[in-house]
Amino acid sequence: MSAKILDGKALAASIRNDLRAKVDALTASGRRAPGLAVILVGDDSASSIYVNAKKRDCREVNYHSDARHLSPDISQAGLLEIIDELNRDTQIDGILVQLPLPDHIDPLAIMDAIDPNKDVDGFHPYNVGRLVLRHPGLRPCTPMGVMQLLKHTGVSLVGKDATVIGVSNHVGRPMALELLLAGCSVAATHKFTSNTRDHVAYADIVVSAVGIPGLIKGEWIKPGAIVIDVGITRDENGKLHGDVEFEAARERAAWITPVPGGVGPMTRVSMLQNAFYALERFHSDGSS
């Protein structure tokens, strides 16, 4: 067996094309395009690359983009003032604050300050709470992207056994909730789990979101499983690696995501989808 590749880059491009057509139809009818504000604090190189990619995505789908590159010395109060301004801006449907933030700024306070109806990252406690209660609104972007990749396989998820490795607030925990909502039985493993291999070996769906290269051995994968590798780490030579031993896992899985080109593009396009949803659901009276 050699797994089929879940090409997130190609799927994301197709979704962007669909979004562009929807935006063009909106503006042709006299309404405005979705507006997205992206805030970058400081000069973290990885964050800068990611923010620039988001700006390119906005241009591709004809969104209005408001990019704010702020000094690393900005106070928490100063950042909160900018978020309040954007919360009140009727041309902005989504606000994204790029993490990580400088040590003197509390990320939870910043997250709480964003209007939940403009929280296109899906990190606000209100939106996570709606997912817990099985009435999702704006969804965390990486799990949302993973669910679209899983849908793309054509495999019914109802009744499947899923294992999520890593329980971060932004990926692992909401990922488990999304899989539960889809009808899976879910195991979530973490640094205190003593038998991660057994959980992986039993799973029809494996989602790893840890950031440790080669953590998930190919021989652990159940034959015919779907393997989603969210982890991404850059080595000293600049090469990117996932959590999963790709080549070995590919010989056992039915579907597998590459690193890069799997989950990453889907995370970004999910943010664009959230912004469009926010316009339609919460700000649909906006005109151009």
Trace the largest sheet across and list its strands. 1-11-8-7-5-6
Describe the largest sheet: 6 strands, parallel
CATH topology description of the largest domain: Rossmann fold
Average of per-residue pLDDT values? 95
Q: Tell me the structural class.
A: alpha/beta
Radius of gyration: 19 Å
Shape field: globular
Overall CATH class of the largest domain: Alpha Beta
Question: What's the count of strands?
Answer: 11
Strand content: 15-25%
Tell me what the CATH architecture of the largest domain is.
3-Layer(aba) Sandwich
Q: SSE order in H/E notation?
A: EHEHEHEHHHEHEHEEEEHEH
Low-confidence stretches: none
Total count of domains: 2
Provide the helix percentage: 40-55%
Number of helical segments with 4 or more residues: 10
CATH superfamily of the largest domain: NAD(P)-binding Rossmann-like Domain
Calculate the terminal CA-CA distance, rounded to whole Å: 53 Å
